[in-house]
Amino acid sequence: MADTSITSLLIQQHYGSLAASLEESVAEGKATRIILAADGTSPSEELAFRVGLQALGLPEAAQKEILDFDPSGKRIEDVLPSYEKNGQLARVMLYNAVLVAAVDGFGDAERAQFRRAGEMLGVPLDVVSAIEDLVLMEKAVTNLRHSLLKARS
């Protein structure tokens, strides 16, 4: 029977059909923590990361494993999930990492980690750059929507 939970439907609407295993999802969470730590994880990034984990509907034990993971001194290549090279899950993982990092703006250290992860996941540099641009455009559209819809007196 197909999963028809609200979370599942929203994820499918946003990303298309996804089928990451629990093990891959935990690895992705740990890799994202390493990316965020590249320039220091801000409180706003940490909050966005936690909200994202909850939205994915991961079991509490998996969320705890990810949140307890200390990225200090860890190498991204040691935790990256073994997604199909340049596949949808690899691209979605990069998108999610960029999305969380963009909460407070991302700098050179995070950008270098996106590109390293992209290279290891077989995602071409031009696609990684396009994902970065997409996230920045989405952020700009959100800011514009908020500005236009804000009540003025």
Structure summarized in a few sentences:
With 153 residues, the chain is mostly helical. It has helices at 6-15, 22-37, 43-56, 60-68, 88-101, 108-120, 125-149. The relative contact order is 0.14.
Task: Describe the structure in your own words.
The chain has 153 residues and is mainly alpha-helical. It has one domain: Orthogonal Bundle (TerB-like). 66% of the residues lie in helices and 0% in strands. It has seven helices and no strands. It has helices at residues 6-15, 22-37, 43-56, 60-68, 88-101, 108-120, 125-149. The longest helix has 25 residues, at 125-149. It is globular, with a radius of gyration of 16 Å. The mean pLDDT is 88.
CATH homologous superfamily annotation = TerB-like
User: Please, what is the average pLDDT?
Assistant: 88
Beta-sheet strand percentage?
under 5%
| SSE series | HHHHHHH
Task: Please state the CA-atom Rg, rounded to the nearest Å.
Answer: 16 Å
Q: What's the shape?
A: globular
The number of strands is 0
Count of discrete structural domains: 1
Q: Which terms summarize this structure?
A:
TerB-like, 0% strand, 153 residues, mainly alpha
